[in-house]
Amino acid sequence: MGIDEYGGGQGPRPDVLVVTTNDVPGYRVREVVGEVFGLTVRSRHLGSQIGAGLKSMVGGELRGLTKTLVQTRNQAMERLVEQARARGANGVLAFRFDVTEAADVGTEVCAYGTAVVIEPVHTE
């Protein structure tokens, strides 16, 4: 699974296809396995909080926080894929992220969706 520094990506051919849609063109859902999720909570680093505070006064991207959030989302997605794979699924439909503050000490990121077994539709 190839994931770059500031974005997602599943590489050339993932064994668990994750999509935000409710279906996959050219495939049919053979079995709905059920809801799957990946959760992670990251605490804030004091240095990054100070840097973010200073940067917010002058404007611009908070690169350190952006990188941390991308890493956190990727970790949550990897956990979702692991859970789907462990339950015998080869796809996750209606994939979403939920991001919330966790008791003023960090950020909770939950990746969730519906695990399914999909198969190609054969048209002749």
From TrEMBL:
Database matches in Pfam families: YbjQ_1 (PF01906)
Cross-referenced InterPro entries: UPF0145_dom_sf, UPF0145_YbjQ-like
PANTHER family found in the cross-reference section: UPF0145 PROTEIN SCO3412, UPF0145 PROTEIN YBJQ
SUPFAM superfamilies: YbjQ-like
Protein name: UPF0145 protein SSQG_04392
Top-level lineage group: Bacteria
Family classification: Belongs to the UPF0145 family.
UniProt cross-references to HAMAP family, sorted A to Z: UPF0145 (MF_00338)
